[in-house]
Amino acid sequence: MANFYAQLDTVFTANQDTDCLRLLDRENWTYGDLQGHVGKIAGVLKAQGVAVGDRVAVQVEKSPENLALYLATLRIGAIYLPLNSGYTPAELDYFIGDAEPTLFVGATTRDDVTSLTLNADGTGSLTELTLGVDTPPIENLNGSDLAAILYTSGTTGRSKGAMLSHDNLASNASALSETWGWQNSDVLLHALPIFHVHGLFIASHCALLNGTPMIWLPKFDAAVVAEQLDGATVLMGVPTFYVRLLALPNFAKQSVAHMRVFICGSAPLTEQVFDEWEQVTGTRILERYGMSETIINTSNPLLGERVPATVGFPLPGLELRIANDHGQEVTTGDVGTIEVRGPNVFGGYWRMPEKTAEEIRPDGFFITGDLGTVDDAGRVSIVGRAKDLVISGGYNVYPKEVERLIDEIPGIVESAVIGVPHRDFGEGVVAVVVPEGEDVATEVVIRALEGQLAKFKQPKRVLNVAELPRNTMGKVQKNLLRDEYQGLFEG
Ligand code: AMP
What we know:
Strand 3, helix 3 (64-75) and strand 4 (79-82) form a beta-alpha-beta unit. 46% of the residues are buried. The chain is an alpha/beta fold. 29% of the residues lie in helices and 25% in strands. It starts with a helix and ends in a 6-residue tail after the last helix. The protein is globular. It contains 14 helices and 25 strands. The protein has helices spanning 4-14, 31-47, 64-75, 89-99, 125-128, 166-179, 197-210, 222-228, 239-246, 271-281, 353-359, 399-407, 442-449, 478-485; strands spanning 19-22, 29-30, 55-59, 79-82, 103-106, 115-117, 146-153, 159-165, 188-190, 214-216, 234-237, 261-264, 286-291, 295-299, 313-314, 319-323, 336-341, 348-349, 366-374, 380-385, 390-392, 395-397, 412-422, 426-435, 461-464. Adenosine monophosphate binds next to strand 13, strand 19 and strand 20.
């Protein structure tokens, strides 16, 4: 059956008594437990009137029940729509308006849509309603039917919903499991959020597809993660994880003795951190490259050489080309836009046919917006982002969205938001502003943005300038600003 959940359900049945989620403050869940919760929550969704193709929007703290809610949505053929738990209610308005979900599950209810609650400890109206509910059958679907919509954004600032099908999820889960040599003895240390492609699909699917345990942490805390490494074999993280682990006073080789592989992605891992990690632990981090629209594209090899500052080779089944603006392949070694085609590539953006047509070529290649090179051996490196995106702590910050709000603050004429190197976050958000009169302090801007913008999007520093550098076409030259302020967070 093409419903991806059906494939997972078979694994759950075969591994009923195996630990699925190892929890620090609650009793563990076996695969039998997960399967039971998925069935019951699916029953609640049905009872709330959620039908095939309906959207279920979810903004909750990470919990075992949250994972079950995701799988229950797939089970009944509805579309899962995860939302960053840092988004403010005002930011949520756009997603709710655009996706028109049948049901919203959040920490609190909303007035504009049928809502249920789910708290970090698993309590809430969603789980209360599971009492006495029947488990509905697994919905029979086509592989091209939608499983999830992941909101991402472009330089235009309007968020786009990347539509992922059951086949997209299933094919990428199998490709990753094969590429990273998943074993029955593997234990995944899961410290990522599950409102993003990395924690929800990439990490969880490898474990779920193989019926192997996850140590399920509510959030990343370096000291807790270091403590748990002893019981794990695989860690998947963003570069910030590795920087913070290295900063722990007692972190050393014996801390990682039990580990099979450390995987990293979502933002560039610097050569410096890669080297430092190798010096301290004797292991080389395996870096890979992915995105909401395609899940994972490339990975450094499990067995071959892992080269720092490269993202490795295309996954099995994926075609990758480095192209010019017309989609024609450039000479090997030259920089161009990374374009990909394969079973993991999304079908388009939710209710945005023009955007979809702009970014997916008629021959099926998706224009990723990342600039890169491929060497003679086929190894891919990312050299920059065509998209004007800042990645701070693994989360995307779209400058336009921040600039728009800063420009509304009294006393500010205009602004340019950029990312500059930050050892802890990868990139730190910086706002360069042109004041009307007196300089505007960082605190003033942050206070004005509170309640309007998630914390990770707020600038860490505000710098005042007389005017923004512009090219002859009137475009702000952010590359000049980035160069000028690249050392801002150093020392
Ligand atoms: P998202 O859709 O939030 O997963 O963000 C996707 C973007 O993250 C990609 O288009 C890349 O620009 C960036 N990205 C992901 N992995 C890497 C990596 N290993 N190195 C550099 N950039 C990356």
